[in-house]
Specification:
Elements (H helix, E strand, L loop, with lengths): L3 H8 L5 H8 L3 H8 L1 H4 L4 H12 L1 H24 L3 H30 L4 H21 L2 H8 L3 H12 L3 H18 L10 H8 L4 H13 L3 H10 L2 H20 L3 H10 L3 H16 L4 H19 L5 H15 L1 H10 L6 H28 L9 H28 L8 H14 L13 H27 L2
Helix pairs in contact: 1-7, 1-8, 1-10, 3-21, 5-6, 5-7, 5-13, 5-21, 6-7, 6-10, 6-11, 7-21, 8-16, 8-17, 9-10, 14-22, 14-24, 15-16, 15-21, 15-22, 17-19, 18-19, 18-22, 21-22, 21-24
Length: 476
């Protein structure tokens, strides 16, 4: 339940794109600034948050994050009341301070309790729970609320009120965290999630210098296999994020649908994943072969983009059917793969933080870039043509990546991405019996070249995201 507030608040924007442009007198790129505002701070914060989670533990981080989520939705509501573009941007930035850190806390807790025990299914349930909020509560209701009340701002305020009046959801999250901490404290020590700080205390009474070194050591302990996958993905997650932020307006422009119909149609793609994504996670647990689905999913996204932008087929086909299947398989192969290529709890929170930092930077870059591309494209039915060409080109590269990951896994990762849970547990037992296997598969351990390259690419993405964001935000 930790991500209810952030999921609810961010889901409201997409159906309101055309309304926000008209009411706030902004262009497509500036709408991209609003849509990506909560991702902006998450180009840096997840890394710091991930390191802190590994060092202090995830329980306290989730409590602090819930406060940021509430404050962000409150500021956004005030911005809607005053028709203030800058306040809406500020609200989404504050919201971003908590949204991704909460997800990293969840992921680390899930891995502690469910590693080797239906972990893929648990990740699927978590993603599906977010889809429930995304589709049923807001994307299908933002336009009805706006049209029924005569003011678009009620859609933003509904997000704020429904998630946190007054701070109800933040208080509920706090209560859940307190209950969890109490529960964990009652468990045998061997069952508890040990933070990096506790582990360091148990090992030695080190001086302050050694403690600082341990604090930052996590990021340099991440295996090369993780960096290879993360670097190669670059803008791929931002591809789908950008598409999601424009899909309602895309239906309106290409099919001439009303905003109400477009809002409902765009929400349909979120419904099927509610039921399918947990099944996909269970499929990975039972049969493995996670990277097989990366190429197939990328090819499916290409078909979705082509049908919605360059054909007259009813939007229910690409949105209601094909996009639903693509969303079901989109994120979970990578989320389920991170604990396999970065398996130690000593740095798992940092690994999730790095992954989210890459994704957030990509979301900012893609949201603003696609808006800028659209602004330079003739208006009318074909206003999204160049945007869709761009999205298709990126997914075409991802088709190749999926096949490449499979080869790398077989030769250099120890086939961990192909294994089912049963095979994975057997492999762990074999490693315990035979000793270290990283000499046979060197990319399963840290490699300085890949760590440095990963950090350089990550900070380059972050700088690019901030420059793009500030340029177009200042343009308002």
């Amino acid at each position: 339940m930790f991500t209810i507030g952030s999921n609810w608040a961010t889901a409201a924007l997409s159906p309101l794109k055309s309304t926000l442009k008209a009411e706030l007198k902004i262009n497509n790129a500036q709408y991209g600034v609003i849509a990506s505002a909560n991702s902006l701070v998450n180009t840096v914060l997840p890394i710091i948050g991930g390191i802190a989670i590994d060092w202090f533990g995830p329980e306290w981080g989730s409590m602090l994050s819930s406060v940021c989520v509430f404050l962000g939705t409150l500021v956004s509501g005030i911005g809607a009341s005053r028709s203030s573009y800058r306040a809406l941007v500020a609200g989404n930035v504050i919201l971003g301070l908590g949204s991704n850190t909460i997800e990293s806390c969840q992921s680390k807790l899930y891995t502690h309790w469910f590693y080797g025990n239906h972990l893929g299914f648990v990740y699927g349930v978590d993603i599906a729970f977010g889809r429930v909020i995304n589709s049923n509560h807001l994307k299908a209701t933002s336009i009805p609320i706006a049209e029924g009340t005569g003011w678009w701002g009620w859609s933003i305020w509904a997000s704020t009120i429904s998630t946190s009046i007054p701070c109800i959801m933040a208080a509920a999250t706090l209560a859940i965290n307190v209950a969890y901490i109490f529960f964990e404290s009652r468990l045998p020590k061997a069952s508890r999630l040990v933070s990096g700080r506790e582990a360091a205390k148990r090992k030695t009474d080190a001086n302050q210098g050694a403690t600082r070194e341990a604090w930052f050591a996590a990021i340099f302990a991440i295996p090369a296999a993780f960096w290879i996958i993360t670097i190669s993905q670059l803008l791929q997650s931002g591809d789908v994020s950008a598409y999601s932020s424009i899909q309602a307006d895309l239906i309106t422009q290409t099919r001439g649908s009303s905003r109400l119909v477009a809002g409902y149609t765009s929400s349909i793609s979120q419904i099927i994943p509610i039921f399918v994504t947990p099944m996909v996670g269970a499929l990975f647990d039972r049969y493995g072969r996670r990277m097989y689905y990366v190429s197939a999913t990328a090819a499916l996204w290409i078909l979705v983009y082509a049908l919605i932008g360059f054909s007259d087929v009813h939007p229910m086909v690409p949105y209601g059917i094909l996009a639903s299947v693509a969303l079901s398989f989109n994120a979970i192969p990578f989320i389920a793969a991170i604990p396999l290529v970065a398996p130690s709890q000593a740095y798992l929170g940092t690994a999730f933080g790095v992954w989210k930092a890459f994704n957030s930077a990509a979301a900012v870059i893609m949201d603003v870039s696609t808006g800028a591309i659209q602004d330079k494209t003739p208006t009318g039915t074909h206003t999204y043509d160049n945007v869709l060409y761009f999205l298709i080109a990126l997914k075409a590269v991802d088709v190749i990546y999926g096949m490449l990951y499979h080869v790398l896994d077989l030769r250099y990762f120890g086939s961990v991405l192909r294994m089912s849970e049963v095979e994975k547990l057997r492999d762990v037992q074999r490693q315990d019996a035979e000793g270290d296997t990283t000499r046979q598969f060197p990319l399963k351990r840290p490699v300085k070249l890949w760590t440095v390259l990963g950090l350089v690419v990550m900070f380059s993405l972050v700088i690019t995201a901030w420059v793009l964001y500030l340029v177009y935000a200042r343009g308002s």
